[in-house]
Amino acid sequence: MLSERRLQVLRAIVQDYVGTEEPVGSKALTERHSLGVSPATVRNDMAVLEDEGYIAQPHTSAGRIPTDRGYRLFVDKLAGVKPMSAPERRAIQNFLESSVDLDDVVGRTVRLLAQLTRQVAVVQYPSLTRSTVRHVELLSLAPARVMLVLITDTGRVEQRMIDCPAPFGESSLADLRARLNSKVAGRRFADVPVLVEDLPEGFDLEDRGTVSTVLSTLLETLVEENEERLMIGGTANLTRFTHDFPLTIQPVLEALEEQVVLLKLLGEAGDSGMTVRIGHENAYEGLNSTSVVSVGYGSGNEAVAKLGVVGPTRMDYPGTMGAVRAVARYVGQILAES
Amino acid sequence: MLSERRLQVLRAIVQDYVGTEEPVGSKALTERHSLGVSPATVRNDMAVLEDEGYIAQPHTSAGRIPTDRGYRLFVDKLAGVKPMSAPERRAIQNFLESSVDLDDVVGRTVRLLAQLTRQVAVVQYPSLTRSTVRHVELLSLAPARVMLVLITDTGRVEQRMIDCPAPFGESSLADLRARLNSKVAGRRFADVPVLVEDLPEGFDLEDRGTVSTVLSTLLETLVEENEERLMIGGTANLTRFTHDFPLTIQPVLEALEEQVVLLKLLGEAGDSGMTVRIGHENAYEGLNSTSVVSVGYGSGNEAVAKLGVVGPTRMDYPGTMGAVRAVARYVGQILAES
DNA sequence: GCTGGCACTCGAACGGACAGAGTGCCAGGC
DNA sequence: GCCTGGCACTCTGTCCGTTCGAGTGCCAGC
């Protein structure tokens, strides 16, 4: 276990490095922080910290910079979450409140988060699996062609074309629509499969094939988590770090284009509370020099999706975490209201 | 008017510069192209081309590079559109044909275009204004709350919440739904306003307010061109040019994040045929060192939206134009089929 | 266990020299 | 009149050596 002072030294190194973007030496450290000891002592402490793998030297005779492990310790033990100020919170709330629909909420959230943290923001659309059904609509487009429209409580709309095995009359369709909605409206997605199980039995034999087809399409739509969408913004902020990672911006941009990678990234983060993944803790190689701060948000007290930011490992963790937490909280409120 | 040979020299300069990314000198030019004259002659021609503003020198005693004006002449007079090869065309078609819905079509198109041109691709969602209505659905969510769902022939779905001025019964709603659809289903958006004009008259006095509200929401949705969405992809390709525009990547990324800017950009392009906007021809400042190649695409013989690519002014115009044209054509086909 | 001192290392910055590419111009040839 | 070869000039990029400063590790002393 490291002594208290050595932890202070590590904290000072992280703070200075995040501020100045330059390796920090023992002398500068004692000048900028009142540690109460001389540079020589700090040097000894630094040597220990380096042995333990918390900091590293880019070259001999340069200052030290924190390693991923150092940031990890900093985040876990040395730094809290910096709360947003009251005016900031009000601004967030106001900005989000003027959203007109779901797309707008997500769009605004992305922009807000990118602006607050000055980093790349990622917001997942409220997930289907945890939401509830508001309404299922069935439209007859042709005798044997039906369009299924699913409307969720988060305002999301999914549509599917269905080719029926047999022609399906308007009245049967109306019947199915009514029965289906009475069963599933207001219910959670997870509960739907059981609820509709015996629905085909109430129909004429000739219609059962079509009913089953419609139902299985509905279930497919519900479980189709792959279809989870997300929105990103603030990629221009990446250029601010061109200094730190010179060629590394490319893999990051590539990763950001791969929605699958991002969804996986958010998916891996813990379900409750804020998750910080630092550098190599990220499974995806292209993001090895970045950190991801993410948190779940939801309309109730349950998370329905996640949002977060991607930035260089050298980021202001307390501030970023504060912004992410605040935005998640207010988005949740907005979703609950609508 | 420039002599034929000077035009050849300009063409050679553009081609070499696009290939090598380096200013091209008179000697290299004669070696790589059989112009039939000596470097000295080429030098004279270059001096003329420079006087006319078609090429420029980054520094004294460096080779020449084309100016925006030079590229313009190249595109207008010296270069054709390079058609895609048969295998390429087949690959495009196959890739697009496996799309499952509109989002997927647009997503695939973006990825395809980015990959083919190795540049940033922008695809506008099929626009509402020129499409036709497939179906209008009205759902009662609460006594005085209706959800309007508009389904277009391109498969796009728009939804709106409507707070009614007075409670509106299920039967009235069904009535309105039926009448509305019989009027507008299959009709072009532009024709809808006239078609629904006298619809309220067929309803009871107490319901007219609500009917009018619903109709005006529908019309709003139809004309709401601002809501036009688009998708971009291939931003990672920008890093390939970090060599050319060192700090210029930032404004480009910023521009790409501003959907408004991009929509305007595509909007400004001509409605028919391919449009190439080179460097400063782009109104938006951040894109002054890029060129935009765009073209309309549509399900019939009429364009319903646009797509294109954004790249450095130093791009392979014939190849890019060929790829853009081919992709637009096949997307159109796919949309027409579905 | 902390401190001041000292020798050492290494990268960044500076500057001069040099090579190479490219130009403009001019006199001569077809 | 136009093209060509030759020549002097200019500029950039690069290489190399020097210097400077920051930072370190180690050690003896308090």
UniProtKB/TrEMBL annotation, chains A, B:
UniProt keyword annotation of Signal present: no
Physiological role: Negative regulator of class I heat shock genes (grpE-dnaK-dnaJ and groELS operons). Prevents heat-shock induction of these operons.
Protein species of origin: Streptomyces zinciresistens K42
Keyword annotations of the record: Repressor, Stress response, Transcription, Transcription regulation
InterPro entries: GAF-like_dom_sf (IPR029016), HrcA (IPR002571), HrcA_C (IPR021153), WH-like_DNA-bd_sf (IPR036388), WH_DNA-bd_sf (IPR036390), WHTH_transcript_rep_HrcA_IDD (IPR023120)
Domain Heat-inducible transcription repressor HrcA C-terminal: 103-321
Domain of life: Bacteria
Listed PANTHER family: HEAT-INDUCIBLE TRANSCRIPTION REPRESSOR HRCA
TM segment ranges: none
GO terms assigned for molecular function: DNA binding
Gene: hrcA
Protein family: Belongs to the HrcA family.
One of the GO biological process terms: negative regulation of DNA-templated transcription
Annotated protein name in UniProt: Heat-inducible transcription repressor HrcA
